[in-house]
Amino acid sequence: MTNEPKLSEELQKMSKEYEPLQPVEKQLIGWSLGIGVTLLFFFYWLSTSFFPTH
After folding, report:
1. CA-CA distance, 33 to 27, in Å (whole number)?
2. What's the rounded Cα separation, in Å, for the pair 18 and 26?
3. Model's pTM, two decimal places?
4. Residue 7's Cα: distance from chain center in Å?
5. What is the distance between the alpha carbons of residues 53 and 7, in angstroms, rounded to a whole number?
6. How many alpha carbons lie under 13 Å from residue 1 in its C-beta half-sphere?
7. C-alpha of 9 from chain center
8. DSSP collapsed to 3 states, the chain
9. Which among 4-8, 12-16, 18-22 has the top mean pLDDT?
10. What mean pLDDT do residues 44-52 have?
11. 6-22 in b/e burial notation, b at 16+ Cβ within 10 A?
């Protein structure tokens, strides 16, 4: 047997360590959410304006 650590042990070590988000990661998350919400409202407006249901 070798002295290599088991995969389950390595996964447990990784899950215990916390790495805070970098500022650029926070900015990317913000932009992604902003674009997503904006597109959601845009497509809702587009569908109600051009494809009325009544």
Report:
1. 10
2. 16
3. 0.62
4. 26
5. 55
6. 3
7. 27
8. CCCCCCHHHHHHHHHHCCCCCCHHHHHHHHHHHHHHHHHHHHHHHHHHHHCCCC
9. 18-22
10. 93
11. eeeeeeeeeeeeeeeee
The per-residue pLDDT of the chain, averaged, comes to 88
Sequence-distant (≥ 6) Cβ neighbours of residue 29 within 8 angstroms: 21
Q: For residue 20, which amino acid is it? A: P
**Residue 2 pLDDT:** 61
How many Å from the N-terminal Cα to the C-terminal Cα in the chain?
73
Which range is least confidently modeled, 15-24, 33-42, 44-53?
15-24
